[in-house]
Amino acid sequence: MATESDGLESAPQSAPHITLEQWRALIAVVDAGGYAQAAEALFKSQSAVTYAVQKIEALLDVKLFSIEGRKAVLTREGQMLYRRARALVAEAGELERAARALSAGWEAEIHVVAEILFPPWLLIGCLGRFGAESPHTRVEVIESVLGGTSEALLQGQVDLAISPRIPPGFFGELLMTLPLFAVAHRDHALHQLGREVTVRDLRVHRHIVVRDTGGRRDRKTGTVDVDQRWTVSQLSTSIEAVASGHGFAWLPREHIRSELESGLLKPLPLRDEKERLVPLYLIVAAPDLAGPGVRRLAEIVRETTAGACQKRAPETSKV
After folding, report:
1. How far is the C-alpha of 47 from the C-alpha of 55, rounded, in Å?
2. How far is the C-alpha of 247 from the C-alpha of 242, rounded, in Å?
3. Model's pTM, two decimal places?
4. Going residue by residue through the chain (319 aa), what tens digit of pLDDT does each one get?
């Protein structure tokens, strides 16, 4: 006859108990490039991060890193576990967001990332409408440039995005196509040439560009191969520099409408590429898990932007 102890002895052993925090430590070490950097990113001590990684190795009886020269690199087993750990941590985050979305009422807080090219008056108008309907929902807006918008989505930092790119794994709908023009102060030397401006002409003058807020910046995106360049962090700073006569820049009409109307800034008579068209997409980070607040804000953004595009139609076919 089988006894209770027999049943216990025959039961399969439980799997190693590795916590999400330990997996997060491994991910941080790889992504940050070392234990010290990972500790700083996680706001933990270096010894705590080291212990977490060593605990994984001990529980699974694997070696995660090997030393090549003076650098620690992932072993084949480490690479596999790193990939699976990222998927596991991401899934855990999705589960937490789903639980919050199922709670009664609108979300307490919504996170939005918006490309700085999106007209600020339009963004504020959308937030104003939403605030009137849900005054107690906090909205945090990250204003980003190029890669920064995609990174915020990929890292799960936001619920809603207005982006010039749709990162892999996401779906977006076109909100508008925004034209950018090369402009300079009305007294700038490029306006004194008395003819069409060529790329060769541009190369001998200062180009004012806005820095990509993404971690992996593409320094060539939107730039001209020039000898002189100022790189700034804000679109408003770029506009101020150009309006002060310090160089030329590709700027959206909606951000410099008053400067154009007053004649302070004038579009350059370029021979080629007279305008650059930048698409802006609305992306809901997790459509199936989005709460009522996120869905309503997305609807407001669609409606408000469509209305603005229709209103501007007599002036231009694009906002």
Report:
1. 12
2. 5
3. 0.62
4. 444 444 444 444 556 688 999 999 999 999 888 888 888 888 899 999 999 999 998 999 899 888 787 777 889 998 999 999 998 988 888 777 666 655 546 788 999 999 888 998 999 999 999 998 888 888 999 888 766 788 888 888 899 999 988 888 899 999 999 888 889 999 898 898 888 888 888 888 899 888 776 545 444 444 566 678 888 888 888 889 989 889 899 898 888 888 889 889 999 988 887 788 889 999 999 888 888 899 999 999 999 999 887 776 545 444 4
Do the bridges between strand 138-144 and strand 109-115 make them parallel or antiparallel, or are there none, so unpaired? parallel
Structure tokens at 211: 């820095």
- If you search the block for the tokens 């009137």, which residue do you land on? 132
Report the 3 state secondary structure along the chain: CCCHHHHHHHCCCCCCCCCHHHHHHHHHHHHHCCHHHHHHHHCCCHHHHHHHHHHHHHHHCCCCEEEECCEEEECHHHHHHHHHHHHHHHHHHHHHHHHHHHCCCCCCEEEEEEECCCCHHHHHHHHHHHHHHCCCCEEEEEEECCHHHHHHHHCCCCCEEEECCCCCCCCEEEEEEEEEEEEEECCCHHHHCCCCECHHHHHCCCEEEECCCCCCCCCCCCCCCCCCEEEECCHHHHHHHHHCCCCEEEEEHHHCHHHHHHCCEEECCECCCCCEEEEEEEEECCCCCCCHHHHHHHHHHHHHHHHHHHHHCCCCCCC
Cβ within 8 Å of residue 21, ≥6 positions away? 52
Amino acid at 178: L
Amino acid at 241: A
